[in-house]
Design brief:
Elements (H helix, E strand, L loop, with lengths): L2 H14 L9 H13 L4 H6 L4 H19 L5 H14 L1 H10 L3 E3 L7 H11 L5 E3 L16 H4 L1 H4 L16 H11 L14
Parallel strand pairs: 1-2
Helix pairs in contact: 1-2, 1-4, 5-6, 5-7
Length: about 200
């Protein structure tokens, strides 16, 4: 389903459950569902968590939304990864098939991966460990699609045999701009240390 299809379905589910779209904004609900999916929290998992009234209602909507997607034999964008991860975790034979198919993996903008993308990458790379990841914790400012910069911070822990190559030469900015940027970004607690320079 594209965003328009998702929105139509969310509105329908909200109404079918007897809730008002004014009290439960479909855009907000879809954003919450997307965040849950991107952190690999399935409807049945979310139902078990202790919640306030709003979250209990979101839980009902999330479960109904997934049931309706399944009835329509459809997936939303987040399902493409979330359900693949679930399949790989539950079926070793299928996982091995794709590990053998994708022996070499390149991930660009690794700092912008979310939990589900991170787990998918880790599962696929587990057999051959041929993972080439490019990223910079200092550039993780958008949190687009629920990105988690900690994936980049944990890379060396998850892949201890990885070779780290720091690309510190900057080709776009003057020394004054780099110095100003470095003095600000050094205040971030969670980052990989580096010293940018330019000619």
């Amino acid at each position: 389903y594209d965003e328009e299809d998702q929105l139509s379905l969310a509105k329908k589910v909200i109404e079918d459950l007897g809730f008002s779209s004014r009290n439960f904004n479909p855009y907000s609900i879809l954003n919450k569902i997307s965040k849950l999916k991107s952190t690999l929290v399935h409807p049945e998992d979310f139902e078990k968590e202790e919640k306030n009234y709003y979250e209990k209602t979101v839980s009902q909507i999330y479960s109904a939304y997934q049931r309706e997607l399944q009835k329509a034999n459809a997936m939303d964008f987040d399902d493409l990864i979330t359900l693949t991860v679930k399949l790989f975790q539950q079926n070793q034979e299928v996982l091995e098939k794709y590990q053998n198919q994708f022996k070499y993996i390149l991930v660009d903008e690794y700092q912008d991966t979310n939990i589900s993308q991170y787990v998918l990458t880790k599962l696929l790379a587990a057999k051959y460990k041929n993972l080439f990841a490019i990223g910079d914790t200092d550039q993780s400012i958008y949190a687009w699609r629920h990105a988690d910069f900690r994936n980049m911070l944990n890379f060396e822990k998850d892949f201890p045999e990885a070779k780290i190559i720091r690309l510190e030469q900057n080709y776009r900015s003057t020394k004054t701009i780099l110095t100003a940027g470095q003095s600000l970004i050094k205040n971030n607690v969670y980052r990989h240390e580096k010293e940018l320079w330019t000619e």
